[in-house]
Amino acid sequence: MEARLLDNLVCPLCKGPLTHHKAKKELVCYADRLAFPIRDDIPIMWADQARTLTAEEAESRA
Asked: How do 34-39 and 19-21 pair as beta strands?
């Protein structure tokens, strides 16, 4: 995924920053505790496609 694209993406719910997790192929919004999948280098930014972070993931910010 291109860094230029990541700089322009925000959470579709709160408009906050996203963290890119390359290994998990996800964009994470810690404010909403959601992880949006990246499929075939395309971020899927629909809330119903996002998974909820576990408490450990939300606190670790890894």
From this structure: unpaired
Domains and CATH numbers, the chain: 3-53 (2.20.25.10)
Closest CA to 39 of 27, 25, 51, 52: 25
Phi, psi of 22 (to 5 degrees): -60, -45
What's the pTM? 0.89
pLDDT (0 to 100) of residue 62: 53
Q: Where are the alpha helices (DSSP H) in 1-62?
A: 3-8, 55-60
39: nearest Cα among 27, 28, 30, 57? 27
Phi and psi angles of residue 36, each rounded to the nearest 5 degrees, phi first: -95, 130
